[in-house]
Amino acid sequence: MNVSSRLLVVSGLYITCLITANLIAVKIIALGDIFLPAAVIVFPFSYIFGDVLTEVYGFHWARRIIWLGFICNLIFVVFVALGQVLPGAPFWEGQGAYETILGYTPRILLASFLGYLVGEFVNSFIMAKLKLRTQGRYLWVRTIGSTLAGQGLDTSIFILVAFLGTPAFVPMMILYHWGSKVIIEAAATPLTYKLVNYLKKAEKSDYFDTSTNFSPFRL
């Protein structure tokens, strides 16, 4: 299994964006009368790097990195929870803040993990299939089209599983979250083009998933 240093860098950036988004999501920001989690500014970038992985290296590599991101996020959550239950020093006064910022309820965790896996795999699948359909042309159609589907499912699953039946649930939350993520990724399309073109030239790779098994569980 030949792994290039560039693939490792893109994978590291992808996972960093993922964990950062989950960490800062606790803060709610206000854009006029619209309230969104702070993660909305960084989570779309994980989709950008996911698009790059599929476009340059193929679905088979994207699939591995998606699962690696899931495992890394799970490890992060486990150690955060362990840090929460460990006895604090007598002079430690930040337990309440720690639990407020880093504490996750099982329902929120389930919503986050389900949304991530479904959204990322759908995003990568559509990227790979559209590349075959368009014969490698119209990259912007593939990136935006896959994001519309992937982010739509990710956002819907997360909000429905996390908040349905609670006072915090507002149906428009899904539209606001989804729309803001798609807008950010669309605005970053020129950056995606530059990164993809650079990697294709540097790696001498432009992978087409003509005979790929698209099962998310085939590693």
UniProtKB/TrEMBL annotation:
Bilayer-crossing regions: 7-28, 34-53, 65-86, 106-128, 157-178
GO MF, one example: transmembrane transporter activity
One cellular-component annotation, GO: plasma membrane
Places the protein is found: Cell membrane
Topology in the lipid bilayer: Multi-pass membrane protein
Key words of the record: Cell membrane, Membrane, Transmembrane, Transmembrane helix, Transport
Keyword set includes Lipid biosynthesis: no
Function: Involved in the import of queuosine (Q) precursors, required for Q precursor salvage.
Cited PANTHER family: QUEUOSINE PRECURSOR TRANSPORTER-RELATED (PTHR34300:SF2)
The family this protein is said to belong to: Belongs to the vitamin uptake transporter (VUT/ECF) (TC 2.A.88) family. Q precursor transporter subfamily.
Protein name: Probable queuosine precursor transporter
Organism ancestry: Bacteria, Bacillati, Chloroflexota, Dehalococcoidia, Dehalococcoidales
